[in-house]
Design goal:
The protein is α+β, with helices and mostly antiparallel strands and 179 residues long. It has a single domain, classed as Jelly Rolls, CATH 2.60.120. Helices cover 18% and strands 28% of the residues. It is built from four helices and ten strands. Strands 1-2-9-4-7 form a five-stranded antiparallel sheet, covered by helices on one side. A three-stranded antiparallel sheet has the order 6-5-8, with no helix packed on it. The longest helix is centred in the N-terminal third of the chain and has 11 residues. 21% of the residues are buried. The mean pLDDT is 88.
């Protein structure tokens, strides 16, 4: 192959990337608390799943919502790499949270600034004394070491992510559950 042909192939636009496996294969192969027999995950590598269906997240949150909510978090779960139990990515942690209608959390602060997305419901986030209303599809941030108190006007589901795994890996992460 000459240089002009090679350059044309490298720069030729593609409509999409070629699928090596069918849709849902990674979830079936790595996301059911099982992995292929010859699979060896490095502790620092990202998950092979990288798909966490909302229906499964919602089912898990509703399952734990049969118990009393934690005073600081309501019902909150952490996404994990099923092969290691660590975060899906080595430097980013992701969380799902269900707040019952009328729930008001106790204040909490930590060193990781956290980005929240309201998936369902509505409420407000009180961040160091300033109140910010949120509803479906709204995004808000709780900056590092700013006290956060969540108020759920209706049953509310939140997704959040932060750099907690990175801070934990280098020994910087701290939290304070304020009474």
């Amino acid at each position: 192959m000459d240089m002009q042909t090679a350059a044309r192939l490298v720069h030729a636009p593609q409509a999409s990337q070629q699928a090596l496996r069918p849709e849902g294969d990674a979830l079936a192969r790595y996301g059911r608390n099982m992995v292929p027999v010859d699979f060896h995950q490095s502790s620092a590598g990202p998950t092979k799943v990288f798909v966490y269906p909302f229906a499964q997240t919602k089912e898990a949150l509703e399952g734990i919502a049969r118990t009393d909510p934690d005073p600081h978090f309501g019902h909150k779960l952490r996404y994990v790499n099923p092969a290691t139990g660590a975060s899906p990515m080595p430097t980013i942690g992701a969380f799902a949270q269900l707040l019952p209608a009328g729930f008001v959390s106790a204040p909490y602060r930590c060193t990781d600034g956290t980005v929240y997305v309201c998936l369902e419901g509505e409420g407000s986030a009180e961040i160091d004394g300033q109140t910010h209303a949120f509803g479906p599809n709204d995004v808000f941030v709780a900056p590092s070491w700013h006290a956060l108190r969540l108020h759920a006007k209706s049953r509310t589901m939140l997704f959040s992510f932060s750099d907690r795994p990175m801070q934990q890996a280098i020994g910087l992460w701290r939290e304070e559950k304020i009474q």
